[in-house]
Every structure is written in C-alpha cells, then in structure tokens.
Amino acid sequence: MTTNPPVHTVYYDGACPLCRSEMSTLMRDNRAGQLRFVDISVPGFDAAALGVTQAALMARLHVQRPDGGWLIGVPAVQAAYAATGHHRIAAALALPPVARLARPAYDWLATHRYRLPRWLLKAVHLHAGSCAPDGACRTH
C-alpha cells in the first residue's frame, strides 16, 4: 500500500517577480508532491479563511504544515527547499552563522522585493523556468 507524503502548503506572492521565479524553481523540483502552492495575489484569495491577514502573508513567505502549524520567513524557505530535495540549502540555512545572516537578509529582500533592480530579477529568472501551480513547467 502506497501512502501519500504529507503536503505542506506554500503561500506566496505571485505578483512579485522574485517570488514567482523562486516558486517556479520549487514547483519544478516538487517531484515528490510534498508541496502545494497557493498564489495569494490572485483576486478573491481569502486570507481570513486561514486565520491570518493578507498583510502578514504578503510580508513573508508562509508555509502551512500538514498539522496546521505555520512556518514563516526563513523557516518556511527551509521547509520548501527540504521538501523539494534541496537538503544542503535547507541544512545550511539552519547553521547558526548562516542563520544569523539569512534572517536579516531575507527580511530585507522581502521588504524591498518590488524595488529590486531589473538586472537582478533577470539574473534570478534565468535559473528558474516557468511553472504553474499544478507543477507543469517549461524551462528557458
């Protein structure tokens, strides 16, 4: 008997080019189906139904664990990377010296993500492909 893996739900800002690019990478690598992706920027999305505010979801990446608990910011990134087979990145983010840098760097990027220079967004976008929330991807 085969059991399905527990599914984490990733709530991301699909209106953000940097976020979209990163989610495309995660969607492409979500071969085991451990992540479900929800674009919180689409009209009609109801954050209140989750017991959180739209502003909180827009401020930082949120991952809801299968047990209903929340991971926010760097812990959410770690969980998403681990679920898609990027174990070295997830483990590195847990190392104390990296974590001390990752948290303020993440907070700065999350706060300024709409003001990042176009050249940086283009460079980031080159490694990602284009993926839909259902996991269908195309690479550049």
TrEMBL record:
Domain of life, per lineage: Bacteria
Report the Pfam families cross-referenced here: DCC1-like
**Stated name of the protein:** DCC family thiol-disulfide oxidoreductase YuxK
Source organism per entry reads Pelomonas aquatica
